[in-house]
């Protein structure tokens, strides 16, 4: 009888743990594996590995445009698709960081249906990630973990800093773009003033290995760790904690209010959404077929999840 009651208890706990499993309400199809997601009012930009950025209407979930960049030649001289590493949008300008020839990178600005190369692959800069600071300035990072501020109009570097000797992983700007947090393979998160590049603070108590991705909203930091930890830092209260995963945590995100967090939480590519304050798990997002690359909250109750395949899952929490 005790054994039977034990199994009933285990079944009940398991059922309660996964009672809030959610399947996608809609699935958006892209031109290839997704590398970056950006929201712009009623549009969603999805950068892909196939020389393209797909643009979707958020309300209809329909693809409304695709921006194509030129293919490149590989080491054998054959034409191949150019992987887009990151994208961003500001007004009518779209920033595109892509794979160049001989291992270099191309940094384009797309405006009025014209593609302008502002940093080409011949400069042999191994740029890993780039975003707009404002209409005339870009912030970008090299694989060597150097951070740069670039003046578009005058075509000069205004400022630079060596973050650490560890390999760069990812950076995220605050919503007002006054701060930037950089993640690297050391597990530390370095917070900088985004214009002066003055180091403000270093967070390193929760991740002990490579951090793949980071998000920053309302003085809350969240990180995705190779150590199977999703770490949370509250900058104002100077406290932190982590949530365990049974697999590498590849992607994380915070909701606009930073009250909810989300992270890839198991080997089946499911995503756990949790309450940042109580640490309680709220939902598990399922039906993701490949390794996660991006989680993006549209608002407090809607989010997109992208992976290495050509699908972006759209979820409504509670449905």
UniProtKB/TrEMBL annotation:
<keyword id="KW-0677">Repeat</keyword>
<dbReference type="InterPro" id="IPR050505">
    <property type="entry name" value="WDR55/POC1"/>
</dbReference>
<dbReference type="InterPro" id="IPR036322">
    <property type="entry name" value="WD40_repeat_dom_sf"/>
</dbReference>
<dbReference type="InterPro" id="IPR001680">
    <property type="entry name" value="WD40_rpt"/>
</dbReference>
<keyword id="KW-0853">WD repeat</keyword>
<dbReference type="InterPro" id="IPR015943">
    <property type="entry name" value="WD40/YVTN_repeat-like_dom_sf"/>
</dbReference>
<protein>
    <recommendedName>
        <fullName>Nitrate reductase</fullName>
    </recommendedName>
</protein>
């Amino acid at each position: 009888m005790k054994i039977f009651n034990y199994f009933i208890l285990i079944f009940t706990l398991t059922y309660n743990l996964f009672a809030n499993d959610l399947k996608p309400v809609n699935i958006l199809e892209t031109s290839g594996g997704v590398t970056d997601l950006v929201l712009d009012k009623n549009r969603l930009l999805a950068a892909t590995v196939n020389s393209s950025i797909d643009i979707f209407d958020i309300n209809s979930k329909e693809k409304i445009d695709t921006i194509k960049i030129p293919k490149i030649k590989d080491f054998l001289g054959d034409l191949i698709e150019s992987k887009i590493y990151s994208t961003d949008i500001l007004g009518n300008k779209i920033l595109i960081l892509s794979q160049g020839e001989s291992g270099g990178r191309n940094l384009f600005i797309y405006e009025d249906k014209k593609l302008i190369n502002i940093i080409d692959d011949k400069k042999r800069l191994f740029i890993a990630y780039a975003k707009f600071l404002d209409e005339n300035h870009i912030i970008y990072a090299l694989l060597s973990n150097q951070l740069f501020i670039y003046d578009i109009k005058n075509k000069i570097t205004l400022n630079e800093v060596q973050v650490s000797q560890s390999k760069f992983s990812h950076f995220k700007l605050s919503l007002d773009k006054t701060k930037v947090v950089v993640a690297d393979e050391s597990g530390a998160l370095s917070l900088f003033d985004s214009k002066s590049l003055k180091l403000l603070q270093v967070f390193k108590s929760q991740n002990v290995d490579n951090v793949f991705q980071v998000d920053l909203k309302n003085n809350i930091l969240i990180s995705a760790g190779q150590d199977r930890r999703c770490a949370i830092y509250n900058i104002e209260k100077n406290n932190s904690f982590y949530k365990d995963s049974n697999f590498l945590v590849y992607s994380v995100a915070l909701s606009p209010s930073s009250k909810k967090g989300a992270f890839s939480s198991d080997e089946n590519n499911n995503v756990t959404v949790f309450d940042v304050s109580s640490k309680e798990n709220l939902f598990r997002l399922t039906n993701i077929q490949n390794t996660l690359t991006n989680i993006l909250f549209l608002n407090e109750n809607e989010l997109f999840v992208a992976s290495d395949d050509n699908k972006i899952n759209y979820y409504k929490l509670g449905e």
